[in-house]
Amino acid sequence: MRSDPLPPTPPAAWSLNRDPALGHLPQVVNRWNLASKAMADSHAFEITVHVDALPGLAQSVNAHLAPEPGPIAALDLLALSQDTGRAELLLTFVFPTDQALSVLAEEHPELRASPTSVALGYVVVSARAHEDSVDVSFFSTSHALAAAMRESDHVRAFFRSLARHAATAEVREVNEWNESRPL
């Protein structure tokens, strides 16, 4: 661990992150985790799906998506999994309001989709291909959205329902320490 003080301005090896969903000001992220005072907050739901089950997964996901930018297709998930870069999709889900989503909407009124629903925006989707299956991950690194993913009964029930498409009949929940457990 370094004992010298951090410089007043971020060095070039640091990067700036902005959460467009919540309009936060940029935060300095230290790539080497030098003198870090807080752990980044994140939450993910991961599922392994046989390639032939991707259409059903896409259909289930589309049932909870906001109207814009439109539905996803199985081919979108397959193409995402085969991209050799770091391609990701950004999706906005809409859920009926529950206690956790009410807290989110109170803190961020722009996420209220209607009087009875809240948008969980900028959920990042990544995918990785295997021989005959695809690992699909839905995650957020925003503190507010990660908290909603952890605490909302409606959000958790939706992601738990995706297990019917899973090769192992299981959705895994992954916390900010990369600890995984069945949802």
Features:
183 residues; alpha+beta; 7-stranded antiparallel beta sheet; two-stranded antiparallel ribbon; 25% helix; 29% strand; globular; disordered N terminus
Task: Please characterize this protein's 3D structure.
With 183 residues, the protein is an alpha+beta fold. It has one domain. The chain is built from five helices and nine strands; from the N terminus they run βββααβαβββααββ. Strands 3, 4, 5, 6, 7, 8 and 9 form a seven-stranded antiparallel β-sheet that branches. Helix 1 crosses helix 2. The longest helix has 9 residues. The chain starts with 14 loop residues before the first strand and ends with a strand. The relative contact order is 0.21. The N terminus is likely disordered.
> Helical element count?
5
Shape: globular
Instruction: Tell me the total number of β-strands.
Output: 9
Tell me the helix content. 10-25%
Radius of gyration: 18 Å
Distance between the termini: 36 Å
Proportion of beta-strand residues: 25-35%
- Overall pLDDT confidence: 78
- Unreliable stretches (pLDDT < 50, length at least 5) are 1-39
- SSE order in H/E notation? EEEHHEHEEEHHEE
Task: Characterize the biggest β-sheet.
Answer: 7 strands, antiparallel
Q: How many separate domains make up the residues?
A: 1
Tell me the structural class: alpha+beta
